[in-house]
Input
Amino acid sequence: MYKLLLTALFCASFAQSYGQEILNKIKQNPDISWAQTTTLEFHTKVGYQNMKLSGGMSQNLVVKHQMPLILKNSYDDFSFHSFAGKIATKDFWGQAKNKCYKDPQLQQLLSPDQIGKKIATIDTVVTFDPKDFKEIVELVPTTYSNSHISHFKLFLCYAYNSKSKQLEIYPISMAPIVGRFDAKGQLAEEVETFWIPVESRKQLDPKQEAINWIQKQQLSWTFKGNEGQSIVKKQTVAEAIIEQVEELTKMAKAKKAYTKYPLFYGEPLDAASITNLKAKQAEDIKGIFFSYILAWDAQQQKAIIQIEGCSPMSRGCLYFIAE
Output
């Protein structure tokens, strides 16, 4: 009984040190005047994808992918360029203990048996009898692989720091999703497998050998119709963003504000753009978008995110480069 109690206390403190600790720090920071959690859906595939997800994206750009030393004639070996191919592998399942959670807040740790049930599925295998060529249909028990994963969910917290006049983004967890889409690209049904912690870093070293996959992405969050928990609400998000726009002249002089992320041909803000953006009203601000680098550490089997910059999303979009 004593041993079980110690285990339960360890699991509780382990979960607390991930998701809830981040949210508590945001709540306790006197400089944060607005903060809200949200969950965005996104995919990591390059090129056009007919999938309508909650997280609007512009471009996905693969920066680094590391091939296996020996390629075999199996589907898994040719998925080295896919994020799903990193997370749905025997290497990950083998180290999944104390890493997978039932909820995005990372409070309900899953046991190995529970993980096994969550990733279990049935594949339909169709073969033909060599004698009479009749179709043979077999139902084979298996586990979800990268081919089953259609997209991901990212649980994060947006915040506004009224002291630094900057929007801040805190990624907390992500989940592989097995989804089915209709002909119009609408999500028809989905299976949420599990949630894993996301490590946030100020700077990623792409030359680090353990990091074998890196992708640049952009996600947007529109205020209307998105559910989330309000963490801090000393002011509205629109008020916070309008306040940030007032700092544009300083940011432009310091070369920290662009029309788009520079890699996507963004130009530094000029006087005319600043005048146009300062004329915006709170109702003109439709949401927030941000750019980030998503990476996979093959050695520790974990997801890493580096936030590059974020901005208000309006008709006159601008992009703030993170320090």
Observations:
- Helices lie at 2-28, 84-87, 90-94, 112-118, 237-245, 248-253, 271-278.
